[in-house]
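S.,

Sequence below, as promised.
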Amino acid sequence: MNIEIQRIKHAFKMECNGSPWHGTSLRGLLKGVDYLQARQRIFPGTHSIWELVQHIYNWREFVVKKMEGDSEFDIELNTIHDWANIQVSTEESWQKLLSQLADNQQTIVEILGGWLDDQLDDQVPGKDYTYYTLLHGMIKHDIYHAGQIAMTRKMLTIGG
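The prediction came back faster than expected:
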């Protein structure tokens, strides 16, 4: 029985679009955000909601690549692959990113569906940590940035 895999899938689903214990899910925080709001900064030098979502997506793609066994793929911190510079901001491109994020969630859940708990102890290709660490880290990473999205939304509403 894959008890830990089920726990990880459940925690991931809850933080993405369920009812997590810590507050609003990522999907809930993004509901109703249009591209104009998504690209705004609360202060110079802060990240926009769009940049935060792109960053979450970039790291989730890292997780997918690693779960697929890619030892070469990597993201160097503080580069465009870590924090993208949003060049084109239209409602269509914002909706595309939100769709990619949802598709990525589904991909991770599907991959996990074929795993056994023992695989969580395997080392991530090209890294010195396990899949257990990677997957729990991904969930914590999403929640951390979801908090930033929540604060940004609140500040934009107060300031607007």
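The two ends are 51 Å apart (CA to CA).

Coffee later?
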